[in-house]
Design goal:
single chain; alpha+beta; Naphthalene 1,2-dioxygenase Alpha Subunit, Chain A, domain 1; Rieske Iron-sulfur Protein; seven-stranded antiparallel sheet; 10 helices; 17 strands; binds FE2/S2 (inorganic) cluster; binds fe (ii) ion
């Protein structure tokens, strides 16, 4: 049997890091299905990166909370008595039980196992029957509070505390999205979903316009067809493109008064690396926070935030339902792609479409190539 040997993803990344790849091409299939890639990604993209856990308005009052697991780390997202949004470890300091489940409002977090009780800022308030003779230092038993950053109403967390400054890394994307004022929008609905595909396939798919017309012929194509996509320049922590609306598309009122005429007639597609993708439309935003749960599976905590005047009419809910329908179209395609990547005749390295359509994927590869310290790949010719 003769077929092209599959180049290694390490060699391809190394060539990209050295600037030797002249023609933008898809990565070798192994980039998406080799279990070893995941270890690199978790260490060099996710643990030291910024991951979106949701929106600040999902916990509007002190004591509001919701739980979320990311990269195997159980988290509780809450608002403390000083009105500060916090992301706490949801693991009891006594013997490791998970503390809170689901979402709600609570004045304190009590572990169901032996009833150690924590304040909203994580401090240990009570530990039954543990008097001073046990030597328990309550100050040392606070739930760890992760480093967070709030951006346009979205809450990001850095799990290892060593990420570069969030504001610096996304600075270049702000001019494209600030006028939509997502910090004034309200979350319609958000929650986690699990897909049986590699996480990069979904992130890349969300951020390329090449598939809009063929995959979303009756949903997104009438609004923002492939041929009107226009890439913007990426930066160290992001990439994006403008999905311009067709002339005969009505647009999406109500608009924030700060938006320009152009901004009222496009969806700004944004990817904040590694896993936050969003479509900023004039009156609503579809957002996703994608993390791997294995080489062949992902979690996406996705939702919709909308202008407050779209709720009463039911339009906000319609936006969410609409996102659900085009997400389903994407999922069907990506399950097929994931399967195709593990076949003998597909070696990867298919040519990418021009920058306006798939240039964002090429930007993403550059970002990964810079962050993965693959010594062998850097030397490989
Ligand atoms: S494990 Fe939480 S109180 Fe014992
Ligand atoms: Fe899509």
């Amino acid at each position: 049997m003769i077929y092209a040997p599959t180049p290694s993803w390490q060699a391809a990344l190394g060539a990209i890091a050295r600037g030797e790849e002249q023609t933008p091409r898809a990565m070798p299939a192994g980039f998406y299905n080799d279990p070893n890639v995941l270890d690199f990604e978790i260490e060099h993209l996710f643990l030291n990166g910024w991951l979106c856990v949701g929106r600040a308005d999902e916990v509007p009052q002190p004591g509001d909370y919701f739980t979320l697991e990311m990269l195997g780390e159980p988290l509780v997202i809450t608002r403390d008595k000083d009105n500060q949004v916090r992301v706490l470890s949801n693991v009891c300091r006594h013997r490791g039980s998970i503390i809170m489940k689901g979402s709600g409002n609570s004045a304190k977090f009590t572990c169901p196992y032996h009833k150690w009780t924590y304040a909203l800022d994580g401090k240990l308030m009570a530990a039954p029957l543990m008097d001073e003779s046990t030597g328990l230092d309550t100050k040392a038993c606070a739930l760890p509070s992760f480093r967070t950053a709030e951006w346009m109403g979205y809450v990001f967390v850095n799990l290892d505390g060593k990420a570069e400054d969030f504001a610096d890394s996304v600075q270049g994307i702000n001019p494209y999205v600030k006028n939509y004022h997502n910090e004034e929008m309200l979350t319609v609905q958000a929650g986690p979903e699990h897909w049986p595909v590699n996480w990069k396939l979904l992130a890349e798919n969300f951020l390329e316009g090449y598939h809009l017309t063929p995959v979303h012929l009756n949903t997104l194509h009438p609004m923002c067809p492939t041929k009107l996509c226009e890439k913007v320049e990426g930066g160290p922590g992001f990439t994006g493109y403008k999905a311009h609306y067709s002339d005969n598309f009505e647009g999406r009122a109500p608009f924030h008064p700060d938006t320009t005429e152009e901004e009222r007639n496009l969806s700004m597609m944004v990817w904040i690396y590694p896993g936050f993708v969003a479509a900023f439309s004039p009156n609503s935003t579809v957002f996703m926070s994608i993390t791997p749960t294995g080489p062949d599976s992902l979690q996406t905590r996705w939702g919709v935030a909308a202008h407050k005047d779209t709720f009463e009419s039911g339009e906000a809910q319609q936006r969410y339902d609409f996102a659900g329908s085009f997400n389903a179209e994407d999922k069907e395609r990506l399950v097929d792609v994931h399967k195709g990547l593990s076949t003998t005749r597909y070696s990867g390295r298919g040519h990418l479409a021009p920058a306006d359509y798939e240039g964002t994927i090429w930007d993403f590869y550059q970002y990964v190539a810079k962050r993965l310290p693959i010594e062998s790949a850097r030397k490989e010719q």
